[in-house]
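Here's what a typical entry looks like (Class I SAM-dependent methyltransferase):
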Amino acid sequence: MLTYDTARKWIDRWDRQQEGYLPGREDRFRALIDAVEAGVGRPDPLVIDLGCGPGSLSARLLRRLPWATVVAVDTDPLLLSLAEAGYGQTTGLRFVSADLRTPGWSERLGLDRPADAAVSTTALHWLPEEHLRAMYAELAGVLRPGALFLNGDHLNSDETTPTLARLERAVHQNEERRVFGDERPEDWRQWWDAVLADPALAEAGEARRRSAAAAAHQGSESGLLSQHVNALRDAGFGEIGTLWQRGNDRLLCAVRP
């Protein structure tokens, strides 16, 4: 049985490897949660965490907003196993297994009212654009009017602004060099190779190997800012813009009319 201590060891190691791609990861978390706190208009919001992984964002959000309810959704059995063991006793937090690429995913959330916000960090870039568009359209249907969508991710400018795109990448790369030098943290593949070799996670690892949805969870199919902005606009969201940015790492916000 996966223990709390084992789960937290791997979650902490996950956070460190993610920081290798995001030297400003905690700053981005804070900006996102600042926006939720300032924007939802109530101390007990209902928040959906899309592509929650092992629960890092959900846990931080509930530390700031302890009266909130967070429904965290992912399709990866191993990451959800870590999340349940590491954060499953957190008041107000519930984890759901669902594939955001499958129509009807929102029905699995078990919401009793429209959500006040939906959030995500470093997750939605892996959705192919057609699935991203369908997901945003379905998401709009479970958010209340005035609700926020907040997505922190590497979202690049496109070929219409080539100088900006180049400068955004340069800013991010220079920050990585300043922070890490030649001592780069463990990367994503190294983390996965290590966690799948841990006997304590053998059952969750086998479930992941059997899951076609989890196996396809990789790559950067929707890594352009314009892909997300256009898809959100077509899904009916109103105001759309960047709230926080460091190079090509940004926090995109959209408001449900």
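Strands lie at 46-50, 69-74, 93-97, 115-121, 143-154, 240-246, 249-255.

More examples are in the samples folder.
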